[in-house]
Amino acid sequence: MDFSFMSVVWLGTPLWLWASFFALVIAILSFDLGILHKENKEINVAESVKLSAFYIALGLSFGGFVWWYLGAESGLAYMTGFVVEKTLALDNVFVIALIFSFFAVPRIYQHRVLFWGILGVIVLRAIMIGVGATLVAEFSWVLYIFAAFLVFTGIKMLVMKEAEPNVSDNALVRFMRSRFNVTEEHHGERFFVKLVNPKTGKMTWFITPLFMALVMVEVADVIFAVDSVPAIFAITTDPFIVYTSNIFAILGLRALYFALAAMIHRFRYLKPALAVVLIFIGSKIFVADLLGLEKFPAALSLGVTFAIIASGVVWSLVKTKEEQLPA
Fold first, then answer.
1. Is the pTM here over 0.85, yes or no?
2. Cβ pair 185, 199 in contact under 8 A
3. Maximum CA pair distance of the chain?
4. Can you tell me the distance from the alpha carbon of 40 to that of 116, in angstroms, rounded to the nearest whole number?
């Protein structure tokens, strides 16, 4: 069989490299669902930490491969995107916790929602990144719009107090409840269930709160992608680096959730650091132009990004610990 077509370059990267990446992702998800979580069970904090470490190591190892095969600049861009996306995911964890709490999703079924949510994320991010890559390739000035948007978003995060999302007042929740048959209680791990409709007396398909939680998790990711996708394009315009760094950062979100959900309050002061990171990533495109540089140095970009995030994490942990100490 002739596999010469695998050497064809697609979106700037050989097709075999894309195929290898997707094969690896499928293998990881199959291992996760088919072996680690073949049966529904609660994921405790210890298991969550171990799984998180595994996914982080996997993401960093892939970054090492990118560095070795595509060069240091691509490797640094991947690492920067991975770190930024992983940190932005902390906000996502907070919103997911609110969604699970509102729909009273039993802890034993939360992994199921997150797993299928990740599958949706892989497809949705591919679409958003594909559109972004096309726009940047056709209209280079779009990159400056992305950069300005990041600076604006970062400043807004610093100066404005963000209100806690109100899931009960969400338009999508109201729409689903008004247009579809929705059960009030959970039916195990099922997203859909056939029950007698009290209005017609006939057997009818109902959606369960578990499915509504899944829809809300997907929508939350799309909203967060509005920040993260422009951020990674401001780091690199290589579609392969953009997509792989995003997906490897998100793959471990399920495991990370169970470790962070119980201690998300300890990262209360991390948001200002995230805001500064967005401002830095957006502004470095304009700084590079002012200095007459073709690109902002990748090593400096990674170093500054990591330093800001690390400072935010340390400051947050110290401040929240002080608040918990008795007066």
1. no
2. no
3. 74
4. 14
